[in-house]
Design brief:
The protein has a single domain, classed as Hypothetical protein af1432 (Orthogonal Bundle), CATH 1.10.3210. The chain contains 10 helices and 2 strands; from the N terminus they run H-H-H-H-H-H-H-E-E-H-H-H. A hairpin with a 2-residue loop joins strand 1 and strand 2.
C-alpha cells in the first residue's frame, strides 16, 4: 500500500475526530486511537529522509483504525477491522479502509520490501494498551487475557508476537533511532 495514489482527499485531524463522533466511538476507544496516532507520529517522525511514507495517511489511519469497535461491541459482530474498512469506504476513504482492514491481520507482509503506512499503524496498535504505550510483551499478554476465549485463540495471539517482532525489526531498519527511544515520553 506504499504511497497510495489518493483518489480521495484525506480528512484533517479535526474531521477524523468528527467521524469518531459520528460513529459514537466510546471514549476509551477514542483515547486508544489518539495514542496509536501519537505512536505512529513518533515512528514516522524518526524515519530516514529517503523513506517515502505519507505521514497524513498514517496519522488518519491510526485515528480511524478502530472506527467500528464501538459498533461491534454493541452488536457482537466479529472482525471490527473489516467492518471498519466497509464504513470508511462508504465515506470514500479507500486508503484509510485498507489501513483499517490491515490493523488486526497484516497480509502480504514483505520483510525486505519498502515500508508501508499500514505496517506502521499495525505496529503502533500493538504498542498501545488502552491509552498507554507498553512493551510488546505486556500488550500481547493483555490481548490474550481479553480476547483469548480458549487456549487455541490464546496461542494464536502469542504466536502473533513473533510476527509483530518481524514488523518491529523492519520499521526500525528505516528509522534514525531505536523505536523505544522514539516512544520515550508518550
Amino acid at each position: 500500500m506504499r504511497n497510495i495514489e489518493k483518489k480521495c482527499s484525506l480528512p484533517t485531524e479535526e474531521k477524523c475526530l468528527e467521524i469518531m463522533q459520528k460513529y459514537e466511538m466510546l471514549p476509551n476507544i477514542r483515547e486508544h486511537s489518539i495514542q496509536v496516532r501519537n505512536v505512529s507520529a513518533a515512528l514516522v517522525d524518526h524515519l530516514r529522509d529517503d523513506v517515502l511514507i505519507d505521514r497524513d495517511l498514517v496519522l488518519c489511519g491510526a485515528l480511524l483504525h478502530d472506527i467500528a469497535k464501538t459498533r461491534t461491541i454493541a452488536t457482537r459482530e466479529l472482525r471490527h477491522d473489516l467492518i471498519g474498512g466497509e464504513m470508511l469506504r462508504e465515506l470514500n476513504l479507500e486508503p484509510l479502509a485498507v489501513i483499517c482492514e490491515s490493523h488486526v491481520f497484516l497480509e502480504n507482509f514483505q520483510i525486505d520490501g519498502p515500508l508501508e503506512e499500514r505496517e506502521i499503524v499495525f505496529y503502533a496498535d500493538k504498542r498501545v494498551k488502552h491509552d498507554v504505550v507498553v512493551s510488546l510483551d505486556e500488550r500481547v499478554d493483555d490481548l490474550a487475557k481479553r480476547y483469548g476465549k480458549n487456549d487455541k485463540i490464546k496461542e494464536m495471539i502469542r504466536k502473533n508476537k513473533t510476527f509483530v517482532l518481524r514488523i518491529e525489526k523492519k520499521i526500525e531498519r528505516f528509522m534514525t533511532i531505536k523505536i523505544d527511544e522514539a516512544l520515550t515520553g508518550l
